[in-house]
Amino acid sequence: MKKIQLIIALCASTLMLAQDNNTTSYTTNRPDGHAPISVMGDHTHNKGEWMVSYRFSTTTMEDLRRANDDVTNESVLLPNGGDYMVTPTEMPMNMHMIGAMYAPTDRLTLMAMGMYMDMTMDHLTAMGGMFTTESSGFGDLSVSAMYKFIDTDSHKWHAQIGLSIPTGTIDNKDVTPASMGNEVILPYPMQIGSGTYDAITAVTYLGQSDYFSWGSQLRGVFRTGENENDYRLGNQLGWNNWIAYRATNWLSVSGRLQGLIQGGIRGANPDLNPAMVITADTSNSGYDALNAGFGFNIYAPELLKGARLGFEYALPLQQNLNGVQLKNQDVITVGLQYSF
Ligand SMILES: [Cu+2]
């Protein structure tokens, strides 16, 4: 009797698994149909569909790290054998992103995205003083096309190619203790735009079963030329992988793992003195990181009429910084998406 029960249990579980793998086709019409909210260009649309989205993210950078080792704020300053007059100690950064998508055909989806950023940077000087600078403004505008080239039962692939237009300012200024009341140009991390035309390329794979959705995206941002302030931000290469579990018809929970290589700045703004503050020294730019994200998506078509809400908390598991820089502590992203 025990054996028969075991065989029945095995057959039942195999049937359930088989059923789980036999979804007819990938659908975005469920909470896990979209990737975690921090992933850009994760999905395409069907012919004639529009989507508008708003995302807010807040990033906290705090405490210093040299390559793989944490260092104290004081250790990088001149009186303690360091190289700099000033170090940043903390930098909170807020980003508002507005996006629009439209699909002229089932295979082609067009996307435009703009953003507004504000940030503050707290500093410690060699004399033991503290001060804060602030910066805000509209960022670069990106336009891109996504082309779905494979769409089989529950598996989809699409490629993205886009252009980032340098609409964001690279001349943000503020007063510092050394500027005698004048507004002076702020270091690289306090600038909003890249100042260059940048190419955006990505390839995304999506898969789905009855209770799970998963995906993988390789994304590159490649800068061209040099901006008006004689420098170019580093290229960026990221590999995002995620899986989401559809807990209910309206709620999914997700986990994400991302490898990120951020190149350093080439060239230098002649108006910045690299010995003054570590953020004005381009050798302190670029990093490698391994990031993890945990989030949820809410999608209730009857209640919310095509709207979705996404949330994600992300933090670095590892970060290897070039030179000495502020560490990334965490990133919180929330977003609303509305399709019609
Ligand atoms: Cu969309």
Please provide a written account of the structure.
The chain contains 2 helices and 17 strands. It is 7% helix and 56% strand. The N and C termini lie far apart (56 Å). It has one domain: Lipocalin, CATH 2.40.128.130. Keywords: Signal. Residues 1-18 form the signal peptide. This is Alpha amylase.
Question: What is the topological layout?
Answer:
Blueprint: H1 2-20, E1 50-67, E2 69-71, E3 86-102, E4 108-125, E5 130-138, E6 141-152, E7 155-165, E8 173-175, E9 183-185, E10 198-208, E11 212-223, E12 231-232, E13 236-246, E14 251-262, E15 266-267, E16 287-299, H2 301-304, E17 307-339
Antiparallel strand pairs: 1-2, 1-3, 1-17, 3-4, 4-5, 4-6, 6-7, 7-10, 8-9, 10-11, 11-13, 12-15, 13-14, 14-16, 16-17
Copper (II) ion binds at residues 43, 45, 51, 101.
Structural class: mainly beta
Task: Give the neighbour order of strands across the main sheet.
Answer: 1-3-4-6-7-10-11-13-14-16-17
Element order: H for helix, E for strand: HEEEEEEEEEEEEEEEEHE
Number of strands: 17
How many domains, as an integer?
A: 1
Low-pLDDT segments, ≥5 res: 1-20
Looking at the structure, the CATH topology is: Lipocalin
The CATH architecture would be: Beta Barrel
Nearest-integer average pLDDT: 92
Keywords: Signal
Signal peptide: 1-18
Protein name: Alpha amylase
Attribute tags:
eleven-stranded antiparallel barrel, 2 helices, Lipocalin, mainly beta, 340 residues, single chain
